[in-house]
Amino acid sequence: MSGARRCTATIDPGPAAATPARAADPGRSRDVKVIIAGAGVGGLTAALALARAGAEVEVCEQSPALRDAGGGLQITPNGARVLHALGLEEMLDEIGIRSEGVLARDGLRGRTLFHMPIGGDIPYRFVHRSRLTQGLAEAAEAAGAEIRFDRGVRHLLPDGGVELQSGATVAADLAVGAQGIHSLARMELNGETAPVFTRNVAWRAVLPGPSVPRSQIWLLPGRHVVSYPLGPELTNLVAVREQAAWVGEGWHHRDAPGALQGAFADASDDLQRIFARVEEVHLWGLFRHDVAQVWRRGRSVILGDAAHPMLPFLSQGANMAIEDGWALADEVGRGEDIEAALVRFQARRQPRAAAVVAASRGQAGLYHLRGLPRAGAHIALRASGSLTPRLMRRRVSWIYDHDETAARG
Ligand SMILES: Cc1cc2nc3c(=O)[nH]c(=O)nc-3n(C[C@H](O)[C@H](O)[C@H](O)COP(=O)(O)OP(=O)(O)OC[C@H]3O[C@@H](n4cnc5c(N)ncnc54)[C@H](O)[C@@H]3O)c2cc1C
């Protein structure tokens, strides 16, 4: 198989899409075989988009089933725009709750600082992560992709094939590393780079009981808390605190609810009532990674957290992985050789991913103000009335208003 194998189709949004389908060319649509390592949000979006573009897609997931990582994801309009273009608007409406906006509050006194309505024609939704990956997997399979479990990938090969953890190799025209934050492929392409502990840890929990249909963010000195609904009787909670002691980077470290409650013992009454509902909580350390310099070698490429892990302060990791999935299929589907498509893919996605990574890093400092700067900022936020929400919306418009389906590398 040569680097000049072609995938001639443009992305077909599928039967459920509102926009007219651009049909794959049936005569040539099976020209390209793609293996994707990782059935997370990025890998599955890429699988769906590539299958719709006419490629033969196999997803290799190391786990025995789709991972139920628990918890929620905020799918902002930029991510939703891609999922709608892939025909998943109805699925998102079924599994998600539309956000009415962001409510910022003083986490010590409970006072409202500002409310930012989301507006716009593309909804901002809260979804259960596992329901989203399930929906993506079903759509990818319906488009012809095959998802195989217990099939870890050890190496992406520059000729587009992969070496499995079993030692077997599988030939293909394009290998995609979508293995998330601990991606081996990123290390192979970029060498081992040590992530830097940000001196922030985060607790996450899903609580029984309702929540208002918006994200609420409470600001406290050196800490912040975000909550949003995941269903009529389910609330997602993430609480972040600065602390010097190191905690491992991973989503599965259990902690005691009392540790979370103790860290926020001075919080406002409404926040205390929410913490009192916590039955099970996980703690993870927040690490800063650099965006990978090298995303591709030959006909292998990385995307999503594998290429650009980011801090969760702007809720963009999954949204960026979704944008990547579309962009990869779009470039591969342009009908030129695959290596050239991967060059364009990196050029198209790396600057935006780097900008979002940088913006996410800056966000914690703004949330965690102390002393006089905190008091001054809160007075200004409350005094500026409708100006603050407008300014806040403008600050994120370059993220939310971006339309990857209209972009080209
Ligand atoms: C608590 C929390 C809240 C978050 N909230 C948001 C949010 O609101 N909005 C948002 O956009 N982002 C959010 N994020 C970030 C988001 O979850 C990630 O950025 C996103 O999941 C990245 O997708 P991915 O497909 O790149 O990787 P992942 O979702 O991590 O998927 C990687 C997959 O690859 C598999 N895998 C790993 N190694 C191999 C291998 N060698 N072979 C085969 N398979 C392999 C894994 O088992 C996994 O299934 C949050 C993250 C956390 C921790």
TrEMBL record:
<dbReference type="GO" id="GO:0004497">
    <property type="term" value="F:monooxygenase activity"/>
</dbReference>
<feature type="domain" description="FAD-binding">
    <location>
        <begin position="31"/>
        <end position="359"/>
    </location>
</feature>
<dbReference type="GO" id="GO:0071949">
    <property type="term" value="F:FAD binding"/>
</dbReference>
<dbReference type="InterPro" id="IPR050493">
    <property type="entry name" value="FAD-dep_Monooxygenase_BioMet"/>
</dbReference>
<feature type="region of interest" description="Disordered">
    <location>
        <begin position="1"/>
        <end position="24"/>
    </location>
</feature>
<keyword id="KW-0560">Oxidoreductase</keyword>
<dbReference type="InterPro" id="IPR036188">
    <property type="entry name" value="FAD/NAD-bd_sf"/>
</dbReference>
<dbReference type="Pfam" id="PF01494">
    <property type="entry name" value="FAD_binding_3"/>
</dbReference>
<keyword id="KW-0503">Monooxygenase</keyword>
<feature type="compositionally biased region" description="Low complexity">
    <location>
        <begin position="12"/>
        <end position="24"/>
    </location>
</feature>
<protein>
    <submittedName>
        <fullName>FAD-binding protein</fullName>
    </submittedName>
</protein>
<dbReference type="InterPro" id="IPR002938">
    <property type="entry name" value="FAD-bd"/>
</dbReference>
